[in-house]
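Q: What residues go here?
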Protein backbone atom coordinates (compact mmCIF):
# COMPACT_ATOMS: atom_id res chain seq x y z
CA UNK A 1 0.00 0.00 0.00
CA UNK A 2 1.91 3.05 1.21
CA UNK A 3 5.15 1.22 0.42
CA UNK A 4 4.55 1.34 -3.32
CA UNK A 5 3.79 5.04 -3.33
CA UNK A 6 7.29 6.43 -2.75
CA UNK A 7 8.74 3.87 -5.21
CA UNK A 8 6.21 4.93 -7.79
CA UNK A 9 6.96 8.59 -7.24
CA UNK A 10 10.69 8.03 -7.48
CA UNK A 11 10.33 6.15 -10.79
CA UNK A 12 8.02 8.80 -12.19
CA UNK A 13 10.52 11.44 -11.34
CA UNK A 14 13.25 9.61 -13.16
CA UNK A 15 11.34 8.50 -16.26
CA UNK A 16 11.49 11.78 -18.22
CA UNK A 17 15.25 11.27 -18.42
CA UNK A 18 14.70 8.01 -20.31
CA UNK A 19 13.27 9.30 -23.55
CA UNK A 20 14.08 6.16 -25.60
CA UNK A 21 11.81 3.08 -25.71
CA UNK A 22 12.58 0.24 -23.30
CA UNK A 23 14.90 -2.05 -25.20
CA UNK A 24 18.44 -3.50 -25.19
CA UNK A 25 20.85 -2.06 -22.62
CA UNK A 26 18.29 0.50 -21.59
CA UNK A 27 16.00 -2.11 -20.14
CA UNK A 28 18.91 -3.21 -17.93
CA UNK A 29 19.16 0.44 -16.88
CA UNK A 30 15.51 0.32 -16.03
CA UNK A 31 16.00 -2.83 -14.01
CA UNK A 32 18.76 -1.07 -12.08
CA UNK A 33 16.44 1.85 -11.44
CA UNK A 34 13.77 -0.46 -10.18
CA UNK A 35 16.26 -2.11 -7.87
CA UNK A 36 17.38 1.26 -6.63
CA UNK A 37 13.79 2.35 -6.11
CA UNK A 38 12.99 -0.82 -4.19
CA UNK A 39 16.10 -0.32 -2.06
CA UNK A 40 15.22 3.27 -1.33
CA UNK A 41 11.68 2.30 -0.46
CA UNK A 42 12.94 -0.34 1.95
CA UNK A 43 15.34 2.14 3.50
CA UNK A 44 12.47 4.60 3.92
CA UNK A 45 10.36 1.89 5.52
CA UNK A 46 13.14 1.06 7.94
CA UNK A 47 13.61 4.70 8.92
CA UNK A 48 9.87 5.17 9.25
CA UNK A 49 9.46 2.13 11.49
CA UNK A 50 12.36 3.22 13.65
CA UNK A 51 10.89 6.71 14.00
CA UNK A 52 7.48 5.30 14.83
CA UNK A 53 8.98 3.07 17.50
CA UNK A 54 10.98 5.84 19.05
CA UNK A 55 8.02 8.18 19.05
CA UNK A 56 5.31 5.90 20.32
CA UNK A 57 6.54 2.46 21.13
CA UNK A 58 8.09 1.17 24.31
CA UNK A 59 11.80 1.64 24.50
CA UNK A 60 14.63 1.56 26.99
CA UNK A 61 16.15 4.88 28.08
CA UNK A 62 19.64 5.67 26.68
CA UNK A 63 22.19 3.67 28.60
CA UNK A 64 25.64 4.48 29.93
CA UNK A 65 28.33 1.96 28.89
CA UNK A 66 28.14 -1.09 31.13
CA UNK A 67 30.55 -3.87 32.02
CA UNK A 68 29.61 -7.16 33.65
CA UNK A 69 29.76 -7.15 37.49
CA UNK A 70 30.83 -3.53 37.95
CA UNK A 71 28.09 -2.01 35.81
CA UNK A 72 28.63 1.62 34.74
CA UNK A 73 31.16 2.34 37.46
CA UNK A 74 33.85 3.33 34.95
CA UNK A 75 31.71 6.21 33.59
CA UNK A 76 30.83 7.35 37.10
CA UNK A 77 34.38 7.85 38.37
CA UNK A 78 34.69 11.61 38.60
CA UNK A 79 36.02 14.32 40.88
CA UNK A 80 32.58 15.96 40.70
CA UNK A 81 29.86 15.12 43.24
CA UNK A 82 27.17 12.77 41.82
CA UNK A 83 24.44 15.41 41.31
CA UNK A 84 26.78 17.57 39.22
CA UNK A 85 28.10 14.57 37.29
CA UNK A 86 24.54 13.35 36.56
CA UNK A 87 23.58 16.83 35.33
CA UNK A 88 26.59 16.88 33.01
CA UNK A 89 25.86 13.42 31.56
CA UNK A 90 22.60 14.81 30.11
CA UNK A 91 24.61 16.36 27.26
CA UNK A 92 25.58 12.95 25.98
CA UNK A 93 22.63 10.74 26.98
CA UNK A 94 19.61 13.06 27.17
CA UNK A 95 17.66 14.22 30.20
CA UNK A 96 16.54 10.76 31.28
CA UNK A 97 19.00 7.91 31.05
CA UNK A 98 19.84 4.65 32.73
CA UNK A 99 22.95 3.09 34.18
CA UNK A 100 23.97 0.12 36.28
CA UNK A 101 25.32 0.25 39.80
CA UNK A 102 26.82 -3.20 40.06
CA UNK A 103 23.97 -5.32 38.77
CA UNK A 104 21.27 -2.87 39.85
CA UNK A 105 19.43 -0.88 37.15
CA UNK A 106 19.11 2.81 37.90
CA UNK A 107 17.27 5.49 35.94
CA UNK A 108 18.35 9.10 36.44
CA UNK A 109 15.72 11.79 35.81
CA UNK A 110 16.98 15.32 35.15
CA UNK A 111 13.84 17.16 34.06
CA UNK A 112 10.69 18.22 35.84
CA UNK A 113 8.10 16.61 33.54
CA UNK A 114 9.48 13.14 34.11
CA UNK A 115 10.13 13.96 37.79
CA UNK A 116 6.48 14.92 38.26
CA UNK A 117 5.36 11.78 36.47
CA UNK A 118 7.44 9.65 38.86
CA UNK A 119 6.55 11.49 42.07
CA UNK A 120 2.97 12.62 41.44
CA UNK A 121 1.18 10.98 38.49
CA UNK A 122 2.63 7.52 39.19
CA UNK A 123 3.51 8.27 42.81
CA UNK A 124 2.26 4.94 44.21
CA UNK A 125 3.99 2.88 41.52
CA UNK A 126 7.29 4.55 42.31
CA UNK A 127 6.82 4.69 46.10
CA UNK A 128 9.31 1.91 46.87
CA UNK A 129 12.71 2.33 48.49
CA UNK A 130 15.85 0.31 47.83
CA UNK A 131 17.42 -1.64 50.67
CA UNK A 132 21.07 -0.90 51.14
CA UNK A 133 23.68 -2.03 53.64
CA UNK A 134 24.04 1.39 55.29
CA UNK A 135 20.34 2.23 55.56
CA UNK A 136 19.67 -1.26 56.94
CA UNK A 137 22.18 -0.57 59.70
CA UNK A 138 20.62 2.85 60.41
CA UNK A 139 16.97 1.80 60.35
CA UNK A 140 16.98 -1.85 61.53
CA UNK A 141 16.23 -3.12 58.01
CA UNK A 142 13.95 -0.32 56.89
CA UNK A 143 11.61 0.04 59.89
CA UNK A 144 11.52 3.84 59.60
CA UNK A 145 9.58 6.17 57.33
CA UNK A 146 12.27 7.84 55.20
CA UNK A 147 14.09 4.67 54.07
CA UNK A 148 11.41 2.03 54.72
CA UNK A 149 9.82 0.35 51.70
CA UNK A 150 6.18 1.00 50.74
CA UNK A 151 3.63 -1.17 52.60
CA UNK A 152 0.42 -0.97 54.60
CA UNK A 153 2.51 -0.71 57.76
CA UNK A 154 4.50 2.16 56.28
CA UNK A 155 1.34 4.03 55.28
CA UNK A 156 -0.23 3.65 58.71
CA UNK A 157 2.95 4.71 60.39
CA UNK A 158 3.35 7.76 58.22
CA UNK A 159 -0.23 8.82 58.88
CA UNK A 160 0.34 8.85 62.65
CA UNK A 161 3.57 10.82 62.38
CA UNK A 162 1.96 13.28 59.99
CA UNK A 163 -0.87 13.87 62.44
CA UNK A 164 1.52 14.28 65.36
CA UNK A 165 3.70 16.75 63.46
CA UNK A 166 0.69 18.84 62.52
CA UNK A 167 -0.41 18.90 66.13
CA UNK A 168 2.95 19.95 67.53
CA UNK A 169 3.93 22.17 64.65
CA UNK A 170 2.30 25.41 65.53
CA UNK A 171 3.61 26.88 68.73
CA UNK A 172 2.60 24.20 71.24
CA UNK A 173 6.01 22.61 71.69
CA UNK A 174 8.82 24.72 73.01
CA UNK A 175 12.39 24.66 71.81
CA UNK A 176 14.41 23.09 74.57
CA UNK A 177 17.56 24.50 76.01
CA UNK A 178 20.72 23.20 74.43
CA UNK A 179 21.88 20.46 76.79
CA UNK A 180 24.67 17.89 76.67
CA UNK A 181 22.27 15.31 75.26
CA UNK A 182 21.61 17.58 72.32
CA UNK A 183 25.30 18.14 71.74
CA UNK A 184 25.90 14.39 71.73
CA UNK A 185 23.14 14.17 69.16
CA UNK A 186 24.80 16.69 66.88
CA UNK A 187 27.96 14.65 67.16
CA UNK A 188 26.67 11.20 66.26
CA UNK A 189 24.36 12.67 63.68
CA UNK A 190 27.28 14.11 61.70
CA UNK A 191 28.90 10.67 61.71
CA UNK A 192 25.72 9.21 60.24
CA UNK A 193 25.41 11.89 57.56
CA UNK A 194 29.02 11.27 56.56
CA UNK A 195 28.47 7.57 56.00
CA UNK A 196 24.87 6.64 55.23
CA UNK A 197 23.04 6.33 51.90
CA UNK A 198 25.56 7.98 49.65
CA UNK A 199 25.88 5.04 47.28
CA UNK A 200 29.29 4.21 48.62
CA UNK A 201 30.88 1.02 47.32
CA UNK A 202 29.53 -1.12 50.13
CA UNK A 203 25.97 -0.09 49.16
CA UNK A 204 26.64 -1.11 45.55
CA UNK A 205 28.50 -4.33 46.37
CA UNK A 206 27.06 -5.66 49.64
CA UNK A 207 29.64 -8.49 49.79
CA UNK A 208 32.27 -5.82 50.56
CA UNK A 209 30.92 -5.96 54.15
CA UNK A 210 33.17 -8.98 54.63
CA UNK A 211 36.17 -6.68 54.62
CA UNK A 212 36.98 -4.07 57.25
CA UNK A 213 35.37 -0.79 56.25
CA UNK A 214 36.12 2.43 58.15
CA UNK A 215 32.89 4.16 57.07
CA UNK A 216 30.67 1.26 58.03
CA UNK A 217 32.47 0.99 61.33
CA UNK A 218 31.89 4.68 62.10
CA UNK A 219 28.25 4.33 61.10
CA UNK A 220 27.75 1.37 63.44
CA UNK A 221 29.39 3.27 66.30
CA UNK A 222 27.21 6.34 65.78
CA UNK A 223 24.08 4.24 65.43
CA UNK A 224 24.78 2.47 68.71
CA UNK A 225 25.21 5.83 70.50
CA UNK A 226 21.95 6.98 68.94
CA UNK A 227 20.16 3.77 69.92
CA UNK A 228 21.10 4.21 73.58
CA UNK A 229 19.66 7.74 73.57
CA UNK A 230 16.50 6.63 71.76
CA UNK A 231 15.98 3.67 74.11
CA UNK A 232 16.39 5.94 77.13
CA UNK A 233 13.80 8.39 75.79
CA UNK A 234 11.46 5.53 74.94
CA UNK A 235 11.71 4.00 78.43
CA UNK A 236 11.14 7.38 80.09
CA UNK A 237 8.06 8.00 77.99
CA UNK A 238 6.68 4.55 78.59
CA UNK A 239 7.09 4.92 82.34
CA UNK A 240 5.39 8.31 82.41
CA UNK A 241 2.77 7.56 79.83
CA UNK A 242 -0.77 8.70 80.43
CA UNK A 243 -3.69 8.47 78.05
CA UNK A 244 -4.66 12.04 78.85
CA UNK A 245 -1.52 14.08 78.22
CA UNK A 246 0.39 14.13 74.99
CA UNK A 247 3.58 16.09 75.29
CA UNK A 248 5.33 15.13 72.11
CA UNK A 249 5.69 12.87 69.09
CA UNK A 250 6.73 9.85 71.12
CA UNK A 251 3.60 10.19 73.32
CA UNK A 252 1.50 10.33 70.16
CA UNK A 253 3.19 7.22 68.74
CA UNK A 254 2.80 5.31 72.02
CA UNK A 255 -0.85 6.23 72.15
CA UNK A 256 -1.44 5.03 68.59
CA UNK A 257 0.37 1.79 69.42
CA UNK A 258 -1.79 1.22 72.52
CA UNK A 259 -5.07 2.04 70.86
CA UNK A 260 -4.19 -0.25 67.96
CA UNK A 261 -3.40 -3.05 70.40
CA UNK A 262 -6.60 -2.54 72.43
CA UNK A 263 -8.74 -2.26 69.36
CA UNK A 264 -9.74 -5.54 67.80
CA UNK A 265 -11.30 -4.41 64.55
CA UNK A 266 -9.83 -6.34 61.63
CA UNK A 267 -8.49 -3.28 59.87
CA UNK A 268 -6.58 -1.82 62.76
CA UNK A 269 -5.16 -5.05 64.13
CA UNK A 270 -3.85 -5.94 60.67
CA UNK A 271 -2.10 -2.61 60.51
CA UNK A 272 -0.90 -2.68 64.09
CA UNK A 273 1.65 -5.31 63.08
CA UNK A 274 3.84 -2.38 62.13
CA UNK A 275 3.83 -0.63 65.46
CA UNK A 276 6.58 -2.60 67.08
CA UNK A 277 8.99 -0.96 69.50
CA UNK A 278 11.60 -0.98 66.71
CA UNK A 279 9.30 0.96 64.38
CA UNK A 280 8.61 3.65 66.97
CA UNK A 281 12.30 4.01 67.81
CA UNK A 282 13.35 4.23 64.17
CA UNK A 283 10.69 6.81 63.42
CA UNK A 284 11.78 8.97 66.33
CA UNK A 285 15.35 8.54 65.05
CA UNK A 286 14.25 9.82 61.64
CA UNK A 287 12.52 12.85 63.07
CA UNK A 288 15.45 13.71 65.39
CA UNK A 289 17.94 13.23 62.55
CA UNK A 290 15.95 15.12 59.94
CA UNK A 291 15.13 17.88 62.41
CA UNK A 292 18.74 18.43 63.33
CA UNK A 293 20.47 18.02 59.98
CA UNK A 294 18.17 19.71 57.51
CA UNK A 295 17.34 23.01 59.21
CA UNK A 296 20.93 23.62 60.31
CA UNK A 297 22.17 22.86 56.80
CA UNK A 298 19.76 25.29 55.17
CA UNK A 299 20.63 27.96 57.75
CA UNK A 300 24.33 27.50 57.02
CA UNK A 301 23.66 27.88 53.28
CA UNK A 302 21.49 30.94 53.94
CA UNK A 303 24.27 32.56 55.98
CA UNK A 304 26.80 31.67 53.27
CA UNK A 305 24.76 33.37 50.57
CA UNK A 306 23.87 36.36 52.75
CA UNK A 307 27.58 36.97 53.32
CA UNK A 308 28.18 36.76 49.58
CA UNK A 309 25.28 39.15 48.89
CA UNK A 310 25.20 41.96 51.48
CA UNK A 311 22.62 43.85 49.42
CA UNK A 312 20.14 40.97 49.95
CA UNK A 313 20.83 41.11 53.68
CA UNK A 314 20.25 44.87 53.72
CA UNK A 315 16.95 44.53 51.91
CA UNK A 316 15.69 41.87 54.34
CA UNK A 317 16.66 44.12 57.26
CA UNK A 318 14.84 47.10 55.74
CA UNK A 319 11.76 44.92 55.29
CA UNK A 320 12.03 43.73 58.90
CA UNK A 321 12.49 47.30 60.20
CA UNK A 322 9.46 48.61 58.38
CA UNK A 323 7.09 45.68 58.98
CA UNK A 324 8.14 44.42 62.43
CA UNK A 325 10.32 47.14 63.93
CA UNK A 326 12.87 46.60 66.72
CA UNK A 327 10.54 46.50 69.71
CA UNK A 328 9.47 42.85 69.44
CA UNK A 329 10.66 39.58 67.91
CA UNK A 330 9.23 38.53 64.54
CA UNK A 331 6.38 36.00 64.83
CA UNK A 332 4.90 33.46 62.48
CA UNK A 333 2.02 35.86 61.90
CA UNK A 334 4.52 38.26 60.28
CA UNK A 335 5.33 35.77 57.52
CA UNK A 336 2.74 37.20 55.15
CA UNK A 337 4.17 40.70 55.39
CA UNK A 338 7.82 39.75 54.81
CA UNK A 339 7.81 38.50 51.19
CA UNK A 340 11.46 39.30 50.48
CA UNK A 341 12.65 37.15 53.41
CA UNK A 342 10.35 34.36 52.25
CA UNK A 343 11.69 34.69 48.69
CA UNK A 344 15.25 34.47 50.04
CA UNK A 345 14.43 31.21 51.84
CA UNK A 346 12.94 29.83 48.62
CA UNK A 347 16.01 30.85 46.64
CA UNK A 348 18.37 29.19 49.16
CA UNK A 349 16.33 25.97 48.87
CA UNK A 350 16.57 26.23 45.07
CA UNK A 351 20.24 26.96 44.65
CA UNK A 352 21.43 24.47 47.30
CA UNK A 353 18.71 21.85 47.81
CA UNK A 354 19.11 19.89 51.06
CA UNK A 355 18.85 16.53 49.28
CA UNK A 356 20.09 17.14 45.69
CA UNK A 357 19.17 13.58 44.63
CA UNK A 358 16.20 13.23 47.03
CA UNK A 359 16.17 9.63 48.33
CA UNK A 360 16.10 6.98 45.57
CA UNK A 361 12.70 5.59 44.58
CA UNK A 362 11.97 2.05 43.34
CA UNK A 363 9.38 0.97 40.76
CA UNK A 364 6.99 -1.45 42.49
CA UNK A 365 5.69 -2.88 39.17
CA UNK A 366 6.49 -2.72 35.45
CA UNK A 367 5.70 0.82 34.33
CA UNK A 368 7.02 3.71 32.24
CA UNK A 369 8.45 7.22 32.41
CA UNK A 370 7.49 9.25 29.35
CA UNK A 371 8.11 6.87 26.41
CA UNK A 372 10.62 4.79 28.32
CA UNK A 373 9.75 1.41 29.76
CA UNK A 374 10.72 0.80 33.37
CA UNK A 375 11.04 -2.70 34.81
CA UNK A 376 9.80 -3.56 38.27
CA UNK A 377 12.59 -3.11 40.80
CA UNK A 378 14.42 -0.38 38.87
CA UNK A 379 15.73 2.44 41.05
CA UNK A 380 14.81 5.96 40.04
CA UNK A 381 16.97 8.89 41.08
CA UNK A 382 15.35 12.30 40.74
CA UNK A 383 18.17 14.78 40.19
CA UNK A 384 16.73 17.81 41.97
CA UNK A 385 19.98 19.63 41.27
CA UNK A 386 19.28 19.43 37.51
CA UNK A 387 15.69 20.60 38.03
CA UNK A 388 16.82 23.58 40.11
CA UNK A 389 19.66 24.53 37.74
CA UNK A 390 17.89 23.90 34.43
CA UNK A 391 18.95 26.71 32.06
CA UNK A 392 15.66 26.42 30.16
CA UNK A 393 13.67 27.07 33.33
CA UNK A 394 15.84 29.50 35.28
CA UNK A 395 17.67 32.55 34.01
CA UNK A 396 21.27 32.34 35.18
CA UNK A 397 20.65 29.39 37.53
CA UNK A 398 23.95 29.74 39.43
CA UNK A 399 23.11 33.36 40.34
CA UNK A 400 21.63 33.88 43.82
CA UNK A 401 18.62 36.11 43.20
CA UNK A 402 15.64 36.03 45.61
CA UNK A 403 13.89 38.47 43.26
CA UNK A 404 13.02 35.61 40.91
CA UNK A 405 10.44 34.44 43.45
CA UNK A 406 8.68 37.83 43.53
CA UNK A 407 6.31 39.50 41.10
CA UNK A 408 7.48 42.58 39.19
CA UNK A 409 6.43 44.97 41.95
CA UNK A 410 8.27 42.86 44.54
CA UNK A 411 5.11 42.70 46.61
CA UNK A 412 3.96 39.09 46.37
CA UNK A 413 5.51 35.65 46.10
CA UNK A 414 5.48 33.56 42.95
CA UNK A 415 6.82 30.16 41.87
CA UNK A 416 8.33 31.11 38.49
CA UNK A 417 8.89 27.55 37.22
CA UNK A 418 7.47 24.06 37.76
CA UNK A 419 11.06 22.87 37.89
CA UNK A 420 11.14 23.48 41.67
CA UNK A 421 10.58 20.69 44.21
CA UNK A 422 12.75 21.40 47.29
CA UNK A 423 10.68 19.02 49.46
CA UNK A 424 10.03 16.39 46.80
CA UNK A 425 6.39 15.65 45.98
CA UNK A 426 3.69 12.98 46.12
CA UNK A 427 3.29 9.93 48.35
CA UNK A 428 6.72 10.41 49.94
CA UNK A 429 6.80 14.22 50.09
CA UNK A 430 8.74 15.64 53.04
CA UNK A 431 6.79 15.27 56.31
CA UNK A 432 8.52 18.26 57.86
CA UNK A 433 7.90 20.82 55.11
CA UNK A 434 5.62 23.12 57.08
CA UNK A 435 7.71 22.79 60.24
CA UNK A 436 10.92 23.48 58.30
CA UNK A 437 9.51 26.64 56.72
CA UNK A 438 8.40 27.94 60.11
CA UNK A 439 11.77 27.23 61.72
CA UNK A 440 13.72 28.81 58.88
CA UNK A 441 11.56 31.89 59.00
CA UNK A 442 11.84 32.30 62.78
CA UNK A 443 15.62 31.74 62.90
CA UNK A 444 16.51 33.93 59.94
CA UNK A 445 14.18 36.78 60.82
CA UNK A 446 15.47 36.84 64.40
CA UNK A 447 19.15 36.71 63.38
CA UNK A 448 18.79 39.47 60.79
CA UNK A 449 16.73 41.65 63.10
CA UNK A 450 19.60 41.65 65.59
CA UNK A 451 22.77 41.11 63.56
CA UNK A 452 24.53 41.87 60.32
CA UNK A 453 26.57 38.95 59.01
CA UNK A 454 29.94 39.31 57.32
CA UNK A 455 33.29 37.56 56.80
CA UNK A 456 35.83 38.22 59.57
CA UNK A 457 38.64 40.39 58.24
CA UNK A 458 41.49 38.35 56.87
CA UNK A 459 39.19 35.48 55.87
CA UNK A 460 37.97 34.80 52.36
CA UNK A 461 34.31 34.38 51.42
CA UNK A 462 32.96 30.91 52.31
CA UNK A 463 32.97 28.28 49.58
CA UNK A 464 29.74 27.71 47.67
CA UNK A 465 30.67 24.13 46.92
CA UNK A 466 28.85 21.60 49.03
CA UNK A 467 30.01 18.32 50.50
CA UNK A 468 27.79 15.62 49.03
CA UNK A 469 26.10 13.10 51.30
CA UNK A 470 22.53 12.24 52.24
CA UNK A 471 22.34 16.02 52.79
CA UNK A 472 24.42 18.56 50.87
CA UNK A 473 26.39 20.45 53.54
CA UNK A 474 28.51 23.58 53.14
CA UNK A 475 32.13 23.43 54.24
CA UNK A 476 32.99 24.94 57.65
CA UNK A 477 33.46 28.70 57.61
CA UNK A 478 33.81 31.63 60.00
CA UNK A 479 31.28 34.44 60.21
CA UNK A 480 31.10 37.72 62.08
CA UNK A 481 27.75 38.63 63.60
CA UNK A 482 27.79 42.38 64.29
CA UNK A 483 24.90 43.68 66.44
CA UNK A 484 22.91 46.23 64.51
CA UNK A 485 22.74 49.82 65.78
CA UNK A 486 20.02 50.00 68.39
CA UNK A 487 20.42 46.37 69.34
CA UNK A 488 21.71 45.78 72.87
CA UNK A 489 23.24 42.35 72.18
CA UNK A 490 27.04 42.30 72.39
CA UNK A 491 29.22 41.63 69.41
CA UNK A 492 29.90 37.93 69.14
CA UNK A 493 31.78 35.66 66.86
CA UNK A 494 30.30 32.32 65.92
CA UNK A 495 31.57 29.48 63.83
C1 LIG B 1 16.53 15.55 53.48
C2 LIG B 1 20.32 10.48 57.85
C3 LIG B 1 17.51 12.09 54.60
O1 LIG B 1 15.47 13.62 52.75
O2 LIG B 1 20.93 10.79 62.69
O3 LIG B 1 15.40 14.85 55.94
C4 LIG B 1 19.37 10.28 61.08
C5 LIG B 1 17.67 9.72 59.38
C6 LIG B 1 21.38 11.68 60.55
C7 LIG B 1 16.70 10.57 58.61
C8 LIG B 1 19.12 13.08 56.97
C9 LIG B 1 15.11 11.67 56.26
C10 LIG B 1 20.50 12.33 59.50
C11 LIG B 1 18.09 13.90 56.20
C12 LIG B 1 14.59 12.71 55.27
C13 LIG B 1 15.86 14.26 53.68
C14 LIG B 1 20.58 10.90 61.56
C15 LIG B 1 18.88 10.46 59.81
C16 LIG B 1 17.36 11.35 57.48
C17 LIG B 1 18.48 12.21 58.07
C18 LIG B 1 16.35 12.28 56.83
C19 LIG B 1 19.54 11.37 58.81
C20 LIG B 1 16.96 13.03 55.65
C21 LIG B 1 15.72 13.76 55.10
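A:
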Amino acid sequence: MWLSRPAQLLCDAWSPLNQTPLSGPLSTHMAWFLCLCAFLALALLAVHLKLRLSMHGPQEPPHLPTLPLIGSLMSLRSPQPPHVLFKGLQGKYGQTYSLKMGSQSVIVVNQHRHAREVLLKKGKTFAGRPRTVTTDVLTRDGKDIAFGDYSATWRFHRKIVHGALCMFGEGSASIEKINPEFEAMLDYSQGIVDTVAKDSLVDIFPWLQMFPNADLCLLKQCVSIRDKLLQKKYDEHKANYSDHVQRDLLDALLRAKRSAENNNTAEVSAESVGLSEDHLLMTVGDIFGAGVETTTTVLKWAVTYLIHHPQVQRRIQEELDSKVGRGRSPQLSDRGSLPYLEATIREVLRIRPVAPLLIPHVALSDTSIGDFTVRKGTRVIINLWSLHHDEKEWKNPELFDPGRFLNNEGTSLIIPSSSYLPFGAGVRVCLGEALAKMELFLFLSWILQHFTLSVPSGHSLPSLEGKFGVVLQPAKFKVNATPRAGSETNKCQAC
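A: Context that may help when evaluating the design: Residues 1-24, 490-495 have pLDDT under 50 and may be disordered. The radius of gyration is 29 Å.
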